[in-house]
Design brief:
By secondary structure, the protein is mainly α. It has two domains: 3-75, no CATH class; 144-408, MetI-like fold (Orthogonal Bundle). Helix content is 77%, strand content 0%.
Amino acid sequence: MSYFVFGFYALLLTASCLAAYFNKRTWFLTIFAFTLVSFVLGIVGGTSVLRNVAALAGLLALAAMVSYAFREFLIAIASNNMAKELRTAPLTAAFGLFVIFTYAIAGIFAPWIAPHGEAEVIATAFAPPDETMLLGADQLGRDIFSRIIYGTRNTVSLALSGTLMAFILGALAGLLAATTGGWFDQMLGRISDVIMSIPALIFALLMLSIFGGALATDTTSFALLFVFAMVTGLLVVVARAERSIMSWVIGLAVLVAAAAGFSIGMLVLFNPSEVILIMVVGVIYAPRVFRLTRAVAGNVVVMDYIEAAKLRGEGKWYLIRREILPNSTAPLVAEFGLEFCFVFLLVAGLSFLGLGIQPPTADWGSMVRENATLISFGDITPLIPAAAIALLTVAVNFVVDWMLHRSSGLKEQ
């Protein structure tokens, strides 16, 4: 028996005994169960397997320490009310917040963090790592590490934009449908049923095939953005104006100007192909948000305080903004996080198929496809972008679970 094996089991048994002595039942069960599993794996796989298990355990311990330190840092800089909430956050939520913070810093400061440009060719194809390239070069000789950093900005920004567009449209439609009812509710419900009946990936491939290629121009993108903004804004005008003709005229005039400004702003931030991708994602996932919002708001509109507000003469916009939405926050927050994960995975999947973010723009999904040849030679570099996708998805779910638990009013046992 090597010194490593002896020390490994001695450390685990010592930790188990200390946890039992101080009556830490959960820690004792966790550590001793890990000891038993390690014992079985050591018998089956030998010392090499135990080293991998120890490395994994050390990585988890490091993640727990980082999460704890980051949570304490947030508590120190937060306000009193926020600090009180953060003290109840589990380590998984703190880890999720740390990962999201890291991705945000990498995306915002990508030009300063990345040592090379995202499309800059600096070496031969598939050059190995050296002092100038941390992860080596891709199939065209571009620095993989730099492209991963830039991919954070491109992939996450598109997924977040698509999620915001889907959520704004779907939530507004769901709240207005629950408040109005009647034929308006039925019409929106049937439209959402039609869109949801088509599989998301097939619908995305169809729309990108139609609007991609030669149609991916500034004119087409502006028209699609303008229509989307008009439809979304029209829901607000319907809720605010109701039967006032003057309110309708003023609202439509403001809406046209706002829709034009929104379309121009999006074209400044994204190129036409990316705009079309965002629009497709928004159309696909808006019905899902509509369904959840309609169900949640439908349970709220029957409450007595909603009837009291109606008897006071309050309009639809007041009911949505002041009565229904504040009482529907918890499930909508959870839905936003889940929708972001779905959209993020869809954008990465489309890029992997070659229909998402187009070259030479760096994107994690396309990076996996472009460098997949390295896997056959035993190089795991192409799996790093895939791991980045999985890590962000898990981190967002950790934070969403904590926020849903906190908003639901449940107490820790």
